Amino acid sequence: xxxxxxxxxxxxxLIVFIxxxxxxxNNPNHGGFGKFVWIVVAFFLSILGSILxxxxxxxxxxxx
Length: 64
Prior knowledge:
Elements: H1 3-26, H2 32-57
């Protein structure tokens, strides 16, 4: 893989991770320990961890 395409993929993964962490921190459905666990899962599983958060972690999202 060329360095430019690798860095673009890494940048996209970093942006997805940051958005996931912000979503976890702002979620009122989990306490401090639960948020910490989800951040660790998102960190170690990268994109898969973010997808798992979207499917299982967010809980009910209130409609506005």
